Amino acid sequence: MSTVLALAFISLQELFEKGLRLWYRPFESWEAFIATLSRGPSVFLSLESKTGLLYLIAGFLTALAVYYIYRRELPEEYRGSALSYIFPRSIYTHPSAIVDYKFVGFDLLVRFFIYFPLVAGTGQLVYVMLNSFEVDLSFGLFVESHYYVRLAIVTLIGIAALDFSVFFSHYLLHKIPFLWPFHEVHHSAEVLTPVTVHRNHPMDDMVNGIVYGVVGGSLAATYTAVSGNVVSELTIFGLNIFTFAYYISVYQLRHSHIWLSYGPIMSHIFVSPAQHQIHHSIDRKHWNKNYGFTFAIWDWMFGCLYVPKEREEIKFGVPEVDPADFSTVPRLYFLPFAKSYRRLIAMIKARSLRFDFDEVAQSARLAQIPESDVNKEQPLTVRTSYAQPK
């Protein structure tokens, strides 16, 4: 036990030192500061970014193909020119989209100074801690296999494991009531554009980064223990080959008005753009559905898969919440902390930690009930106005 604690202390010390170096690096020189500042806009240029210019162009071409293939089946409002279909003014100039641009523009300038170092250090922490045990799990079949066989195995396992981590962190953000207010920022978008993918609260990114780091670090340490080598996978432009294929094909349509379904069979394997749009729907039948990023099998396994039989009209946003909560950048940043605190206190007072939005004690309701009633044996659960499209 003492050995484990010592290793944990050493690992935490290393993470702390790494974090300090990361936080200090942007301020080492004027050049370093400018370089860090430029990392924000690079998300629309870098080939390692999901909204890199190459992928945005590819998304435009995919949307163009969808228009010409399905234009006879499109609603009347979308049967104009291809450009008016792909870039409708009513969406890209919508007040919610304008807030998107402001929020994302500011967030991309500060994220690499404030919370990115913590996220970046999580995977390193897990990797160092697990590697400290120096466990040898190597076996001949894997170690002696051809390099490209090992590369393919690591790539496939890595894709599956990390995709599950994205699904699981997304699931937690919806299911843990005091985390939802941070993820609510993303869901509050009333129209979807490719920019909406960056409309994430810093705490939202923290949770995603920590889960992703734990899974990625564990995977890396396991591979090192099995093979004795450092982790490597088949990549293109710094992305694993499958993720690259996803980004350069249909990814940009996930956050858009452009409906593209894979049909009843393939939609049980891969998450189509239509399925993710359904995830953003305020329609009650769509709540708790389609958390997945790439693979739909996780939703299928957890019983939260929704496969549309035909095109559905969808209204985006968050139901029964004041739209003014999401009308400015400061509100998007700071109001979630107040909401999260109220939810946490309400759950503690109600002695209820149910991870179900339809049965979470509401702080406003608790404030109206005598303390003696709150402390009864039966936990207070009420229908809440925070019922969410999960």
| Total beta strand runs | 2
**How do the SSEs run, as a string of H and E?**
HHHHHHHHHHHEEHHHHHHH
Taken from the alpha-carbon principal axes, the silhouette is globular
Strand order of the largest sheet: 1-2
Structural class: mainly alpha
What is the arithmetic mean of pLDDT?
Answer: 78
Percent helix range: 55-70%
Radius of gyration: 23 Å
How many H/I helical runs? Answer: 18
Strand percentage lies at under 5%
Low-confidence stretches: 135-141, 356-390
Major β-sheet, in short?
Answer: 2 strands, antiparallel
- Straight-line N-to-C gap: 41 Å
Name some characteristics of this structure.
single chain; mainly alpha; 390 residues; globular; two-stranded antiparallel ribbon
Please, could you describe this protein's structure?
The protein has a two-stranded antiparallel ribbon with strand order 1-2. The protein has a domain at 2-255. It is 55% helix and 1% strand. Helix 1 packs antiparallel against helix 7 (116-131), helix 7 packs parallel to helix 11 and helix 10 (180-187) packs antiparallel against helix 16 (329-350). It is mainly α and 390 residues long. It is globular. The longest helix is centred in the middle third of the chain and has 29 residues, at 147-175. It has 18 helices and two strands.
